[in-house]
Amino acid sequence: MQFRLLPFIRQSGITLGLALSSFTALSQSKPTKDAVAIYHFTTSRDYSYDYALGVGNAVEAGVLKSNRFRVVERNRFGLIKEEDKFKEANTTELVSKAGKLGAKIIITGHVTGVSRGNVVNSSNVATGNEYVDISLSFKLVDVASGEIVKSEIVRGEGKGKNYAEAAQYAYVSISDIIRAHIGAYLPQRFKYMSTVSTGTKKRGEYLDKFKIWGGSDDGLQINDVVDIYSVSYLTNPNTNQKVEEKQSLGKANVLEINSGSTATCRMIDGPRNGVAILQAIKNSADNLVIEYKGNWYEKRTLLDILGQ
After folding, report:
1. Residue 25: Cβ within 10 Å count
2. Quick check: 163 and 143 in contact, CB under 8 A?
């Protein structure tokens, strides 16, 4: 029996080779994501280790869901010893290990306080809901320098129909705060795409809605806040180095995620700031920079945050 596949393969070799080359080129053109290492969260001996696990899980899930980073999971550091669960992590010891795992930054957290109870109204009458407040000592460590670039006490507050729901709200609240700190340390930049709508007032036409070259693939979410700048470049005569100067023009919130690489934004206080931004677009849209630093416009519901 003779097969006739070989001639077909020969005739298609160039096409197949081109297709494979194109696929390889596309794969290689994708930017490499920064790696974030999340170490085991710990807690004071005054509180259950379950709180450290709950916050750690929420932060890890939040960073993963943001789609901005490659996450070095806690289990890559090995199991945490029982005595280490109740003391703050030694960041100096973690830097070497994180560096070998390819991480750019390390996140550590230590639960310092927990309170829970019944929610009461203004008349001090129980509403039937419960609350959970968790305080966390949070650190962000730059692996290359070993420097602690962020060290904050953050607080997560949660209310719900029962303890489990209130605790989940508190965990996710802390996750959002830490995501904001990461965004502030590693801001993202996007380019202006197009104007969607404008408004008018006495001073003239102002920018209302616009689209940017950034979307779900960049970790943007609805209600994230972006800062809008006009940038110019100078040359320092003393060093001959290029210097970027930024002029803040206003802020906008992400209204809609249109694709993996596009999103629609709406000006915050458009009538006040949108006139100058619209003029900047008309002058030279290339000089407009949109930055995301980890902030959000309004509190999301738990279902929004969890993506359900």
Report:
1. 9
2. no
Tokens of 149: 């670039």
What angle do the packed helices 49-66 and 163-185 form, to 10 degrees? 50
How many Å apart are CA 61 and CA 172, to the nearest integer? 9
pLDDT digits (tens, 9 = 90+) for 232-291: 899 999 999 999 899 999 999 999 999 999 999 999 989 999 999 999 999 989 989 999
Tell me if residue 41 falls in helix, strand or coil.
coil
SS3 assignment, position 125 = coil
The residues facing 132 across adjacent strands are 116, 158
Mode of pairing for the β-strands spanning 188-201 and 105-120: unpaired
Taking the C-alpha atoms of residue 128 and residue 118, their distance in angstroms, rounded to an integer, is 7
pLDDT at 207 over 60: yes
Under a CB-based contact definition with an 8 Å cutoff, are residues 49 and 86 in contact?
A: yes
